[in-house]
Amino acid sequence: MAAGPAEPVQAVLQRLSDWPGEKRVAVGLSGGVDSSLTAALLEAAGWQVEGLTLWLMSGKGACCAEGLVDAAALCEQLGVPHHVVDFREHFRAQIVDFLVEGYGQGITPLPCSRCNRNVKFGPMLEWAERERGIARIATGHYARVRPGDASDALPVPGDGRGRAQLLRGLDAHKDQSYFLYDLPVGQLDRLVFPLGELTKQDTRAEAARRGLRTAAKPESQDLCLADHHGSMRAFLDAHLPPRQGEIVLVDGTVVGRHDGIEHFTIGQRKGLGVAWSEPLHVVRLDGAFNRVVVAPRSAAARASCTVGAVNWSAIAPPTQPLEVEVQVRYRSGAVPARLTPLSATESDIQAERPHRCRLDFAEEQFSITPGQAAVFYAGEVLLGGGLIQPEA
Questions:
Q1: Does the active-site annotation cover 357?
Q2: Catalytic-role residue among 64, 75, 112, 224
Q3: Residues 92 and 214 in one domain
Q4: What is the mean pLDDT of residues 175-196?
């Protein structure tokens, strides 16, 4: 390697070198370029690195056959140990069954945040500490963490005393904090995200400079289950029986038929197979009656929504309304909203995360989708987030 690393990479290496405390870490390796460079940077900064790959599915997929091979080869290249842990049954119970149940009920579930909480970060931390005596894990996510005692903690609305802060990644096009909203705040101090201060272009360039075998590996554009089965439709067809039903207007007028509500999502316009005087969009999926409800775009916007199973991250659960920025989809921008805490119902109290709130948007929002996450921010700081609830 003739030229040295670019300035942003040098800054990351310096920060990792100056990291306080023990520098032992298990790096979650998927076999992609992001996790590969994460391991390489930590090793270069003097950390004692061990690779950890979760075996989630058999066959094709970024986290499966190809990924296992590439992760193992990377660890061989870096001269660090590599561990493969069979999580297939855990993944099936936590993600596959969860998706099938949600889609069958007319909800569009968000598997990635659930996977991060229930399959990846928590279980990886437990395994690393139990089996290897390692207290930290690192991944290739584009996000940043400020420890709970950080002197450069950012101001937040509400009570953030002593709480670690999860921040957006500096690359706005790659920021993945949205999918990390559900991580327990107690885990954040044990996480390392070296790529949070890099752009994807920086990552590719540095991986190539270091001669990493994954430097030019293409990114997966879909959910891992969609990659594994060929498409999300194929995954759903493999797990849900065909259920033909009606496509109706809000007033109940039948305008078409469908072959399964799981193949539709809120806001969808194309592929409805309905001829009408104006374009129609999906506004509701009625699981009880197996109906797809459609309406003109003007009727598809919502001024508010209820969010349940809220995980409060940078602040303690608020008792008063807050002005926040809300992101309701991974690829949507954050929009202003007023967040009002709601009293927990009896079923909420029995749940792991009983907190609920109401969001009133400054402007009506399109495609508010039950089952997807609404994540609350104050600038770069992720305050918390939860799951959008179906309309009553």
A1: no
A2: 224
A3: yes
A4: 97
